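ok so I'm stuck.
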Amino acid sequence: MTQAQPGVIRYSDIDPLPLVRLLARFGLLLDTEPAGATIPGSYWGDEEAGLVGSMLKIREDTPIHSILHETCHYICMDDRRRKGLDTDAGGDYAEENAVCYLQILLSDELPGMDRHRMMSDMDAWGYTFRLGSARAWFERDAEDARGWLLSHRLIDKNEKPSFQLRDRDRDE
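replied:
not stuck anymore, here's the structure
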């Protein structure tokens, strides 16, 4: 994205402690850059979150959807990609869908954010889904993403996050 979108929840809008605790469950550390600074490891630039190794880089104006999206890339990638991580999370179409699905589920872990608000923010930001909205996709068209997460043991059959990272060796 090239310009800030109004109305989405940003890092500065939430209590940071639950987010820091959530990230720590996955071995991620949060690094906040000064206002207006370039965010290292940001694939899209501007206020979008960045990934460098196990460090999630943000600014106060970084949207929560971006923070959770990059967090979920870290969770969903295999160990080999995680070890060399700098900016581009990589992955294929199926993994990208799983990332979007998991970010919706993980949003329930943050006070002031839940899956409905996450889907609304994703729509406002410009995420695109075949059925026209994040909610329609999540509820009626995301069986493949759910199956991917289940097969990699990142969620259980009740769609509860396992709070584990994907491990290529375990998945083979």
